[in-house]
Design brief:
heterodimer, A: 135 residues, mainly alpha, B: 239 residues, 2 domains, 13 helices, globular
Chain lengths: 135, 239
Amino acid sequence: MIVSGRQGSQPLNIAGALATLLACQLAGEASVLATRQVFPAFAFPGPVAGMVLLFVVLLLRGGPGSSLDTTSRTLLRNLSLLFVPAAVGIVQYGDMLARFGLALIVALVASTVLTLLVTVGVFLLVAGREPEDGG
Amino acid sequence: MNAPVSQIWVYLSASPLTWLTATLVAYVAADAFAARVNRHPLANTVVIAAALLAGLLLATGTPYAAYFDGAQFVHFLLGPATVALAVPLWRNIAVVRRSLAAMAVALVAGSVTAAASAVAIAWLFGAPREILASLAPKSVTAPIAMELAKSLGGIPALAAVLVIATGITGAIIVTPLMNALKIRNYAARGFAAGVASHGIGTARAFQVSELAGTFAGIAMGLNGALTSLLVLLWLAFAG
């Protein structure tokens, strides 16, 4: 028996969504490389340039289709997973951290707390204190 | 271990499939544990999964390079995931537009605080110049931080480690800190997480709320750009 699709819902086109994301990243990497030909000191990650590009595409197209929407949500919901391989890499530099351990740990923790406080404080000061999202 | 089993292990331990599977299993286990303790900030999924895997590598005598042969497929997805940040950015465009001024000022303040405070504290502890140079870009996403550390005369590998450590620190601290301060503005909370602790902070923010994650993603991108610019200016005028 053939089950007809629910009305108004299309099958997910995951290949198309991934192709869009990868094409934007590729274009981003290419534009960063091209800029570096002119300004060798230009440090900017290709994927972030790709994000800007996709954002412009979304503005022009009036939003993502349901496939790109679902694929992006899925990727971002599992963003933590993607950092695991790099985090495992810390282990091989354990001696480097140990050598300057105290200075580095104090600098990292204190600076991170300070940065969070300054950023959130300034943001709220300029934005006004009305809650956004609430929950 | 008898001969056939050890032969199978010799084959498997060199296979990317083993370490790709191990990475996903470790993450699923870490995520299940985090869910059980109601997403307590200390139960950070990145930390738990990485600790499990690091222990496994140590126990089996597997070099990191062999592990990364398999794990690289997961690592590679960081690129498209970064591009995907454009989608929640587009969806929350109204809030983003209302917050442009707040973001601009908070970005400059946070970016300068992140670099200056870390360098100043480590300098007080007598850390040498190359350590300070590796520490300066610690709040920026890893690929930019490594470039910046190199151009400042630091050690790129150390910069990458400090970036990851900063990300984890911020991801663990941000929720209890903001709750203690009774800050309910999730745009502001997310933005701070992204400026202070880049992608790992962004990953944490997405676990808390999509709005926070969106602002963290914007902050991560902007802080990468601004810190690069500040380093260029530093090199031009002071270097």
